[in-house]
Structures are given as structure tokens and as C-alpha cells.
Specification:
This protein is an alpha/beta fold. It has helices at 7-11, 44-54, 70-79, 95-103, 125-138, 179-192, 199-205, 225-239; strands at residues 17-23, 38-39, 42-43, 58-65, 85-90, 112-117, 140-146, 169-177, 211-214. The chain has one domain (7-239): Spore Coat Polysaccharide Biosynthesis Protein SpsA, Chain A. It is 35% helix and 21% strand.
Length: 240
């Protein structure tokens, strides 16, 4: 089910990927500014920025920030020597608006755009590279892992159906696309006011195939304070 890699093909081509890190969420369920919250004494946002900064395929990073956070994020980049950040821009009222704000500011020389949630600090080089390589071959890719729980389809208060768990995946970020595809998809989603929950949904709505790359069980999204405790446990395990 997952993209298996094309190392020989990749070496014969030049990948130039712009990374857009969306860091402008409201954090209502978290209760505070999770993006700048300290995780093992390091701001949450710094972790994913350092991973993209070190990736050989990434040529630039555009950070999408909440209003009033631009200067603070610029200082964070200086503090952690994140040299590939070229712009920090203000996001919009929705995920689609924020993502489009970021991808619209990427370099025209890039042949891929990776979009990542700043609230996923535990993403690894392996997950990032897998998604980028998959998109380079297939035009659209998302990091994902098989669903661990049985999923129910519930349009109202009663269960309509139960899809086979073997066919259900939990989608993560990064999500990587050819520039024209993602720019057109996000623009179309906003014009039609589509209720998309991730960037791949907008691409799917245009009829493009989206392929899966290998995600990680550790690539969690920080949504509640409990997630922060889990992230600390994962980081401690990695350090051991």
C-alpha cells in the first residue's frame, strides 16, 4: 500500500522542495499557544523546523504564523540556526486559507511543495524524505499509518457502516504536491467553500490521485496537554 522508494530514479533528477510549516492554529483544545510551548526545554515549532532545515531536498521554508507571532518566530529561527526559513507570513481564518498563504509565497523554482503541521514536532527525516520522494514520482503524497482502531461511519446518531480496518489509514503531515496542483486545489476549495480537513482533501476534490508514503506512529499531533506528555516520553525514548 505504501510507496516503496525510487532511490535510483531520484538520484538522476533534482528535487527542489519548498516546505510550508503551518503554525497559526488557534490551539483552543490545547488551552495555550502550543506552537511556542516548551517541549523538553525547546519550543515545539523548533523541532519540525530543524528537521526540514536539515533535509537535503528542502531548499526553503515558509512559516505560516498567527497574527502577532512573526517577530517571535523570526527570533526562534535565529536562536536555533534555522537558515532555510526565507519568509514568515500571516495565516488565514481556516486551514485552507493558511496553507494557501504559505504556498503562494514559495519560490517558483521549486518543483514540489511540502505542507507540514507545526504541531507535529516529532516528524523525522525518514518520514519527510519518504513523502517528498513519493510526490516526486506520483505528484501528490501524504504520510500515513494504518489505523489502529475500528472506524465507524456515523452521519447522525446511529452507525451507518464499518469500513474494513485494513482499508483505513490515519493521515499525517508532511503532505507533498507539485506546486500547480496544490495551489489550484486550495484556491478551488476556498472558492467552493469546501469543508476540507487536510490539504490532500482539496487535491482529491479536483480528481487527482493521492499516494501514501510511510508515516510514523511517533509523528503525533499535539492537540491536548496529554499529547505533550506523550511527546516528552517519545523524546526521552529516542535519547536513550
Amino acid at each position: 500500500m505504501f510507496f516503496s522508494g525510487i532511490s535510483g530514479f531520484i538520484r538522476s533528477k533534482k528535487i527542489r522542495c519548498s516546505a510550508v510549516v503551518v503554525a497559526g492554529g488557534s490551539a483552543e483544545r490545547f488551552g495555550s499557544d502550543k506552537i511556542m510551548a516548551p517541549l523538553m526545554e525547546t519550543p515545539v515549532l523548533a523541532y519540525s523546523l530543524m528537521v526540514f532545515n536539515a533535509c537535503e531536498y528542502v531548499t526553503e521554508i515558509v512559516v505560516v504564523a498567527a497574527p502577532g507571532k512573526i517577530e517571535e518566530i523570526a527570533e526562534l529561527c535565529d536562536d536555533y540556526n534555522i537558515q532555510k526559513v526565507t519568509k514568515v507570513v500571516v495565516g488565514g481564518a481556516t486551514r485552507a486559507e493558511s496553507a494557501l498563504s504559505g504556498v503562494s509565497e514559495t519560490s517558483s523554482s521549486s518543483n514540489l511543495i511540502a505542507i507540514h503541521d507545526g504541531a507535529r514536532p516529532l516528524v523525522t527525516q525518514e518520514v519527510v524524505k519518504s513523502a517528498i520522494e513519493c510526490a516526486f514520482h506520483h505528484k501528490a503524497a501524504v504520510a500515513a499509518v494504518p489505523a489502529r482502531d475500528t472506524v465507524k461511519i456515523v452521519p447522525s446518531k446511529t452507525v451507518l457502516s464499518t469500513p474494513k480496518r485494513s482499508q483505513v489509514y490515519s493521515v499525517q503531515t508532511p503532505q507533498v504536491f507539485e506546486p500547480n496542483i496544490i495551489k489550484g486545489a486550495l484556491t478551488d476549495a476556498l472558492m467552493k467553500e469546501l469543508p476540507i480537513t487536510d490539504d490532500a482533501s482539496a487535491v482529491e476534490a479536483l480528481g487527482f490521485n493521492v499516494f501514501l508514503s510511510q508515516g510514523s506512529e511517533e509523528n503525533i499531533k499535539l492537540t491536548t496537554p496529554l499529547d505533550m506528555k506523550l511527546a516528552e516520553t517519545i523524546l526521552l525514548s529516542r535519547r536513550r
